[in-house]
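[worker-b] picked up task from shared queue
[worker-b] task type: protein-ligand structure
[worker-b] ligand name resolved to pyridoxal-5'-phosphate; SMILES cross-checked against name lookup, match
[worker-b] sequence length check passed
[worker-b] input payload:
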Amino acid sequence: MTDRSNLGPGVGIIDKYRDYIPLAKDARAVSLAEGNTPLIPLERIARRLDNKVRLYAKFEGLNPTGSFKDRGMTVAVSHAASEGARAVVCASTGNTSAAAAAYAGRAGMDCFVLIPEGKIALGKLAQAMMHGAKVVQIRGNFDEGLDIVRQLPDHAPVTIVNSINPWRLHGQKTAAFEIIDVLGKAPDYQCMPVGNAGNITAYWKGYREYLPEPMHYALPKMVGYQAAGAAPLVHGHPVDSPETVATAIRIGKPATWDGAVNAAKDSEGWFSPQTDDAILKAQKMLAKCEGIFCEPASAISVAGVIEDVRNGRIAEGSDVVCIVTGHGLKDPDTAIAQSEQPETVDATMDSVSGAILAAMERA
Ligand SMILES: *Cc1c(COP(=O)(O)O)cnc(C)c1O
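[worker-b] inference finished, payload out:
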């Protein structure tokens, strides 16, 4: 395996894995040095599962705009720039718009984003606005937004940077490369949230491209988790009005349906649902017990693994990687709503130490 650990400053996934990304040789990388995110052992959560598995989180929330979307966006925007595109457009539940806005800004392109009114986390909206995107809120959900975006190039000179753009998947598959580089092999199970289903498709592609051919047996089982109220791949048919607290996966009609189904089927993985309660509980557990603050959609990987280790679907003794797709700071409202609110006391030693001692007593 090539040592790709130290290629110099400003190096992102395109420079690091150029052999695997079919961009033109002279195409300049529009990069924010994305990727190279840590694979963090989840020892305290594993202990709660009686150490039946070795558990890791691939913390994609540490990408430059706070989600894995940066991996796909650096490639999609670099390709668009190499073709002379002036503007990019996407429908988004939030993170795609944040990444598109940042990379388009860096490339000197205009960015237009369609978001579902009232259903986007505050941090993501702030990002798209700060990076200079023109934000259009639609009275409709993500699926309706994407249907409009698909037709937009017929009406305006814009390049689509949703994950239906195949360059996105070329970028996102590099996360699988990094996992193999760190573990020295693929995990036994890779567990992740699934919304529009580009990412699970990209990872599966990545694992197959990066592992040498004769080692096919070592591919991971791909496990996709969906929110119970937005679980089209679990049910096997689209969902008309998807609902979940995990807004990043509030999607009823995944665009890369076949890619996701094939990933699960060919790898002997599966899709299963998690309730919003289980998602929020896992989000809190990751933050409190492991120091990893992710957004609700990302926590579904851990919620699902807890269930599937307990019910035996994930085999004992396995290496399990949870993809933690986005940072918790993206969605402060949901975090604050489920937390104990701060206690206000007088600015005296007695009041402060009293509050601390009372809290220690309660714990
Ligand atoms: C986009 C996104 C997902 C879902 O990924 P898909 O490729 O749409 O399946 C999950 N979590 C977060 C934080 C996201 O931004």
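[worker-b] attaching auto-annotations
[worker-b] The first strand starts at residue 39 and ends at 41.
[worker-b] releasing lock
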